[in-house]
Design brief:
By secondary structure, the chain is α/β, with parallel strands linked by helices. The chain has 11 helices and 11 strands.
């Protein structure tokens, strides 16, 4: 099946009161694992790459891998640029046939965030590629961008309404207490803030930093209007766990063997998270 727009998937999720899992892939094996998991559970899925990932390989390399793996899959798959760090990178991803992009201006002022997000949506109007933006700052580390706990700002509901109306974005990532990476303690999500944003904003809402958030908290956020849930760190940990366990055999030197072990771990984790998102048999 050809890759689809993320907006198509998120609008269906919003109507069906579930979320689509968005999984960050770092290599071929993780791409394969994510798609195999979604195929087995008959679930829509979003595969994401960050700026550091495309620096490691390239937009064209990841697009080719995802397109190739998706050809025979009978499930809807979107390819998304996660945390696009500039207007130019978003434009490059659209040119590389990504079917969804995020412009992350969350570390900018409110006005500058609106300005850069609006510029990216102007490309979207020409290319028909949906745009995600972020308002408020999710704490923790994402690529080379680090936000301390004291600097993490929750999304202001009234600003969210203005931001969506002014920029024309198709989905909005909000800060309600999650963080990138793993947590030092159990995260406390501000569900009241989520409800207020949902009442004021009609477009699909996105939860970043879900790695390490208890499943029940993710499920509750979905019932309150989250339509897309991002997972990254846990997938990296799962892949590394599989590789390390395989390499306990000192005679093992075939990359296909130990990377295959990492792929199996990622596939199992993705299946677990798809179930949490409630997207099984949603195509």
């Amino acid at each position: 099946m050809a890759l689809v727009s993320s907006l198509e998937l998120l609008e269906m999720a919003q109507q069906g009161h579930y979320a689509v899992g968005a999984f960050n892939a770092e290599n071929m094996e993780m791409v394969q694992a994510i798609i195999e998991a979604a195929k087995e559970l008959n679930s829509p899925v979003i595969i994401q790459t960050t700026p550091s990932t495309v620096d490691y390989a390239s937009l064209d390399m990841f697009r080719a891998m995802v397109y190739e793996e998706a050809k025979e899959a009978k499930i809807p798959i979107a390819l998304h640029l996660d945390h696009g760090s500039s207007f130019e990178l978003c434009q490059a991803a659209i040119n590389a046939q990504y079917t969804s992009v995020m412009i992350d201006g969350s570390k900018l002022s409110f006005e500058m965030n609106m300005e850069v997000s609006k510029r990216v949506t102007q490309i979207e109007k020409l290319a028909n590629v949906p745009v995600e933006a972020e308002l408020g700052t999710v704490g923790g580390k994402e690529d080379n961008h680090v936000v301390s706990e004291k600097d993490a700002l929750y999304t202001n509901p009234l600003q969210a309404k203005e931001f969506v109306e002014e920029t024309g974005i198709q989905s909005l990532a909000i800060a309600i207490g999650t963080a990138h990476g793993f947590y030092k303690g159990e995260p406390k999500l501000d569900f009241d803030r989520l409800k207020e944003i949902r009442d004021l904003v009609s477009i699909p809402l996105v939860l970043h930093g879900a790695s390490g958030v208890p499943d029940e908290a993710v499920k509750k956020a979905i019932t309150l209007g989250i339509c897309k849930v991002n997972f990254a760190t846990e997938l990296r940990v799962a892949f590394t766990k599989g590789v390390r366990e395989a390499l306990a055999d000192i005679n093992l030197y075939d990359p296909k063997k130990y990377n295959g072990a990492g792929r199996r771990e990622v596939k199992q984790l993705v299946m677990d998270k798809i179930r949490v998102c409630g997207s099984v048999d949603r195509i």
